[in-house]
Design a protein that fits this description.
The structure holds two protein chains of two kinds. Chain A is α/β, with parallel strands linked by helices. Helices cover about 35% and strands about 25% of the residues of chain A. Chain A is built from ten helices and eleven strands. In chain A, the strands form two sheets. In chain A, strands 6-7-8-3-9-10 form a six-stranded mixed beta sheet, with helices on both faces. In chain A, α7 links the parallel β7 (about 170-175) and β8 (about 200-205). The radius of gyration of chain A is 18 Å and the shape is globular. The two termini of chain B are about 25 Å apart. Classes of the chains: A alpha/beta, B mainly alpha.
Chain lengths: ~250, ~220
């Protein structure tokens, strides 16, 4: 697509024990763009996204072959510290999962453990900026020390996004970030994704074709562990080149 | 053809297509009758053609309403989306063609009868070709056939050339006999209406190809 490639995967295979979950996935993800991953449940898209910040390391039976390159660096190389990698590649999950702490502490937690703020003032500023970027600050500025769990679902999800961007990641992975939200909260998150894409590379897993069509510039279709098709989002949803893609996005069986 | 998981979605798309085919057949009948009026002027039949145009307008509204509901209900993508887009486009083209057929009938109403010295059959022949090419475009839509659709623009080139011939022929007729200038002028207006139907048939064929290929040429 003519942009810088931020993430490049080369012939990635993923196994859970003997079961192959992903087969030969080679995909390039452009910088500061939104890439959607679509496909039926169990097709491997979440497995794929979890490889990008080595979340699969926490699963004992999970084994990965192939290469995942971020900024010309193999993220599975021995010298890579997964903790630092996850600071660079943040993640937002399907169900909002704020820590059982105040709104402020939720956002301040990451910068504290990574030592990103030198003083309390600096930390305050970082938390405020993160909440502003996540489009949440105006709504909660008077109750920033109340529990994060007291927020609505959509606000909690934006809190999780604020928490992710507080540690200045370059890439944000989102695994069905709106599937637990109502249409209005979804619209707010989508608006936020548009805004975030100016500064971050975003990879989003979604079950909503319309959401993928709205928020992303590139779309990849996964099916039974294979990458069937990847291309410009407008092309994938108007004239997909593969029959499997066409059948999936139009809801056909045969 | 694969079916949708949701069967009512297939029913909606089929219903859209059958309404459009019905509209196309009604328009075809209107063109047929309008062309027939050129050969045999018949005031009551001309009035009938004008009256029947209202039914075509109503079908266009119906298709538009149905397509709008289907869009909002199904949020279609890829070939499904194109099918709905071309339904909107083709129904609007058919409505225009219906107007042209009705305009031919209107011209017939104003000429009332042909002068005895007017003997040429060329505009009627033009009408027959236009009707035939419209029917071809309609078949291409109904059968979703790229091959049939591709023959329509080629035939339209022949139609345009015959239209030019008719135009020159009528200029000569008017120069030779000043008494038939009024009648010939109306006939030339009719020829123009027919030529427009030819052009619009070509647009239908292009929409059919767009639906099948996914890109506009």
């Amino acid at each position: 697509m003519g942009e810088n490639i931020k993430i490049s995967t080369k012939k990635v295979n993923v196994f859970y024990g003997d079961k192959k979950a992903l087969e030969n996935i080679s995909l390039e993800i452009p910088e500061k763009k939104v890439t959607s991953l679509i496909g039926p449940s169990g097709c491997g898209k979440s497995t794929f996204i979890r490889c990008l910040n080595r979340m699969n390391d926490t699963i004992d039976i999970c084994r990965i072959e192939g290469k995942i390159i971020i900024d010309n660096e193999d993220i599975y190389a021995n010298e890579i510290d997964p903790v630092l990698l996850r600071a660079k590649v943040g993640m937002v999950f399907q169900k909002p999962n704020p820590f059982p702490k105040s709104i402020f502490e939720n956002v301040a937690y990451g910068p504290r453990i990574h030592g990103l703020a030198k003083s309390n003032d600096e930390l305050d500023e970082l938390v405020t900026n993160s909440l502003i970027k996540a489009g949440l600050f105006e709504e909660i500025k008077d109750r920033i020390h109340e529990p994060g769990t007291s927020l609505s679902g959509g606000q909690q999800q934006r809190l999780c996004i604020a928490r992710t961007i507080a540690i200045s990641p370059q890439i944000i992975l989102m695994d069905e970030p709106c599937s637990a939200l109502d249409p209005i909260a979804t619209a707010v998150i989508e608006e936020l994704i548009d805004e975030l894409a100016k500064n971050y590379t975003i990879v989003i897993v979604t079950h909503s074709m319309q959401q993928a069509a709205r928020v992303s510039q590139q779309t990849a279709f996964f099916h039974m562990g294979n990458l069937i098709e990847v291309g410009r989002t407008d092309q994938i949803f108007s004239t997909p080149s593969q029959k499997k893609t066409q059948d999936y996005i139009t809801g056909k069986i045969g | 053809m694969k079916e949708h998981i949701v069967t009512t979605y297939d029913e909606d798309l089929n219903s859209l297509k059958s309404n459009l085919t019905k509209m196309g057949l009604n328009v075809e009948k209107q063109i047929f009758q309008a062309v027939d009026l050129i050969k045999i002027i018949n005031i009551s039949k001309a009035k009938e053609v004008i009256e029947n145009d209202k039914g075509i307008d109503a079908l266009e509204k119906k298709i538009r309403g149905f397509a709008t509901i289907t869009l909002s209900k199904r949020q279609p993508l890829a070939d499904d989306l194109r099918q709905i887009i071309i339904s909107l486009k083709i129904s609007s083209i058919l409505e225009r063609i219906g107007d042209h057929a009705s305009n031919v009938a209107g011209r017939i109403l104003s000429v009332k009868k042909a002068p005895e010295t007017y003997r040429t059959d060329s505009i009627h022949q033009l009408g027959i070709l236009v009707l035939k090419n419209f029917s071809t475009a309609l078949s291409a839509f109904d059968q979703e056939s790229k091959e049939i659709a591709q023959s329509v623009p080629t035939e339209d080139i022949a139609i345009n050339s015959i239209y030019e011939t008719c135009f020159r022929e009528h200029l000569h007729l008017m120069m030779e006999d000043r008494d038939i200038i009024g009648f010939c002028t109306q006939m030339l207006f009719i020829a123009k209406e027919l030529e427009r139907i030819g052009d619009l048939s070509k647009v239908i064929s292009k929409e059919v190809i767009y639906n099948l290929q996914g890109t506009l040429k």
